[in-house]
Design a protein that fits this description.
CATH architecture of the largest domain in chain A: 3-Layer(aba) Sandwich
Number of helices of chain B: 14
Helix content of chain A: 25-40%
CATH class of the largest domain in chain A: Alpha Beta
Number of domains of chain B: 2
Number of domains of chain A: 2
Number of strands of chain B: 0
Radius of gyration of chain A: 21 Å
CATH superfamily of the largest domain in chain A: P-loop containing nucleotide triphosphate hydrolases
Order of helices and strands of chain A: EEEHEEEHEHHHHHEHEHEEHHEEH
Largest interface: A-B, 30 and 24 residues
Distance between the termini of chain A: 31 Å
Shape of chain A: globular
Oligomer: heterodimer
Shape of chain B: globular
CATH class of the largest domain in chain B: Mainly Alpha
Strand content of chain A: 15-25%
């Protein structure tokens, strides 16, 4: 197996707040291989964005990473321990260099009073030895590559003069201009309408192949995941409940939460039937349930087990794993019967 | 560039129209004051012992042109003001208002603009520090000082400083000049003397303006810093002072520039009271004197008009600044 590009081990993220220390992410581990697209799925508040921001140390100043949390990135010049980076200069290696990020709201992620071109050139100047003129040419070239027509004129415009889809394209152009190893896409298509969404996803897929970079694709939309990702990680209340290839997770979801999410999708053949939502709401991070965090909403809740202890990760098949007592018992049952 | 010139010209035209309207309102207000210049002057003479008759008043009215219709008189007043910069004669003192105001205009406007400058020179850096710093002590200090500034009336502050300096230095620091320089011609020593006294009204007027501006800057900056484009810039590797000035600070500047005109207005409002307490001989004191005591409508009208004109002028400047600073404003006013 090739060495992972980025490796997250035991990542726990807590926030200092007026109500005390709140756990947002609890001991999660995952890897992303070079060129791989990992989809990170979960409801709002499940800790997806916080996890993604941790990869670039972008969380606010009240964030605490526990001592055993480790995020390591393989670069051409060796291994970088991301959470150990302190100085702005060191952080520059990852921020906009080895890792780029695009956000949910393309309008809000451009500074309103600075031209798109100037923001692109600024990033290029920070991360390469290009002259201003070269940076300008490269930026225009990138805008052209993502399908923005009349790129030279657009370069001197502001984000508010772009349409929604064009802004996200420009955002992608800017993110890829420094040839990062990893692109973090935080719900990049959520704010776009469906046709534009499809265009942006196609564009991203093309560019991934062309640039050979890995993507961490964050979304709550399983449909988008099925179209884009190689592997999926499902998050619930700051925990990773299931990981596996797209095929495994979507065809044979193991964790009751993943099953619930998939059941909640409208089905084409039964459009008249009411939707089946996952019952209940995601609990407040202030009152994390004991035992398995999902037990308060789980249809297969086992009293005395699920609310008492924390399930460990059970391997199901090659690369497919879930953290659930029900799954664990089923697997044990299978292995125990023949013996 | 041509578009900008066009925009500036339009704004300038609008400013002139505003001034005309203002002049009309001011002139009408002065007209509403019972009695007119002729009666006032003769009444004043009466107190000096001269006998006056109704015929005297009529003759005086004719001499001053007060028998003409209101609109005509406004027209000639505004014409003189705009074309010659001439505000006519004071009702009571029978002196040219221009001579009467003379350097006072510049002293007054100087004091007001300087206190505004002083306010923003303090408010912008401290507001930014307070918005970006996570230190609770620094934040509380800024908050305490600015609430104190907002809550304490200017006249109280002025009285306290006067009391303090009288007790400690034996000089109440009132007036704009010390005795020996009051009517002396301008000289180097007189300038020094002026500066040694002018800091007090500047400080007092600037005090509450600073407190207010500090709160504005702090609120705007905290708001901008939390915005996604700042995080996005950080994610691209922009850091330190560059991140702060180029991103949130630049975008917080618009509303701050916008509040300049409003702040100048507040400073003008407070000026007469401060002027009375510090026994300043500048325009604010003269306004109070002419309005409240001697009922000199010509003089009061001239002063109010000058103060309003300077606000209109400042608003014109801030409009220009905003268009330069913010491309969205530029586009909305100039198209394309």
């Amino acid at each position: 197996m090739t060495q992972p590009l980025i490796s997250v081990e035991n990542l726990s993220i807590k926030f200092h707040t007026d109500e005390g220390l709140i756990t947002a992410v609890d001991k999660i581990s995952f890897d992303i291989a070079p060129g791989e697209v990992l989809g990170l799925v979960g409801e709002s508040g499940s800790g997806k964005s916080v996890t993604a921001k941790a990869l670039m140390q972008l969380n606010s100043s009240n964030t605490v990473y526990t001592d055993d949390s480790r995020i390591t990135l393989q670069t051409d010049d060796g291994t970088i321990d991301i959470l150990e980076l302190k100085k702005a200069k060191e952080l520059n290696l990852i921020r906009g260099g080895a890792i780029s990020m695009i956000f949910q709201e393309p309008m809000a992620s451009f500074a309103p009073a600075i031209t798109v071109g100037k923001q692109m050139v600024e990033q290029l100047m920070l991360h390469s030895s290009m002259t201003k003129k070269e940076a300008r040419e490269h930026a225009i070239d990138m805008l052209d590559r993502v399908g923005i027509s009349d790129a030279a004129r657009r370069f001197d415009q502001h984000a508010f003069e772009f349409s929604g889809g064009m802004r996200q394209r420009a955002m992608i152009a800017m993110a890829l201009s420094t040839k990062p190893k990893l692109l973090i896409a935080d719900e990049p298509t959520t704010a776009l309408d469906v046709t534009i969404q499809a265009q942006v996803i196609d564009l991203m897929k093309d560019l991934v192949e062309e640039f050979g970079m890995a993507i961490l694709f964050i979304t709550h939309d399983l449909g988008v995941i099925a179209q884009t990702a190689d592997r999926v990680a499902v998050m619930y209340l700051g925990e990773l409940v299931e990981t596996g290839s797209v095929r495994q997770v979507i065809r044979e979801p193991a964790h009751p939460y993943t099953q619930g999410l998939l059941n909640a999708l409208p089905k084409l053949e039964k459009l008249d039937e009411p939707l089946t939502p996952v019952p209940g709401d995601i609990p407040s991070p202030l009152e994390r349930p004991s035992g398995c965090v999902f037990h308060t909403r789980c249809s297969q809740f086992i009293e005395g087990t699920c609310d008492a202890s924390i399930p460990s990760v059970t391997a199901l098949a090659d690369g497919h794993a879930a953290a659930c007592f029900v799954v664990d018992q089923a697997v044990r049952g299978k292995t125990e019967v023949p013996a | 560039m041509f578009q900008f010139a066009q925009f500036a010209a339009t704004r300038f035209g609008l400013a002139i129209v505003t001034l005309l309207l203002v002049s009309f309102i001011v002139f009408s207000l002065m007209e509403l004051v019972p009695g007119n210049c002729a009666e006032r002057y003769l009444a004043f003479k009466n107190t000096q012992g001269s006998q006056i008759t109704v015929e005297d008043i009529a003759a005086e009215e004719k001499r001053l042109g007060l028998d003409r219709p209101f609109i005509v008189r406004w027209g000639s007043w505004v014409g003189n003001v705009f074309l010659k910069g001439d505000f006519g004669e004071s009702c009571i003192l029978r002196l040219s208002i221009n001579r009467l105001l003379g350097e006072k205009i510049f002293l007054t406007l100087g004091i007001c603009f300087t206190s505004l400058l002083f306010a923003y020179l303090i408010a912008i850096p401290f507001g930014m520090i307070s918005a970006t710093s996570t230190s609770a002590t620094a934040n509380n200090a800024v908050r305490f000082v600015s609430y104190l500034g907002l809550a304490m009336p200017n006249f109280l502050l002025a009285l306290m400083i006067m009391l303090f300096s009288t007790v400690v230095f034996g000089d109440s620091l009132t007036g704009l000049f010390s005795k020996e320089f009051r009517d002396a011609p301008w000289s180097y020593d007189r300038v020094i003397d002026f500066l040694s006294r002018a800091w007090l009204p500047i400080f007092i007027l600037g005090w509450s303006a600073t407190a207010f501006a500090l709160q504005t800057v702090r609120a705007l900056m905290s708001d901008e810093i939390g915005k996604l484009y700042v995080t996005a810039a950080k994610a691209r590797g922009v850091s330190g002072a560059r991140l702060l000035w180029r991103y949130p600070a630049r975008h917080a500047l618009g509303p701050i520039v916008n509040s300049l005109g409003f702040d100048l207005n507040r400073v003008f409002n407070e000026l007469p009271i401060v002027a009375v307490i510090l026994t300043l001989t500048e325009m604010g004191a003269l306004l109070l004197e002419s309005l409240a005591r001697s009922n000199d409508q010509q003089l009061a009208g001239a002063i109010i008009f000058i103060l309003t004109a300077s606000i209109v002028f400042l608003n014109f400047i801030t409009d220009m600044l905003l268009a330069v600073l913010d491309p969205r404003v530029r586009r909305s006013v100039m198209g394309g």
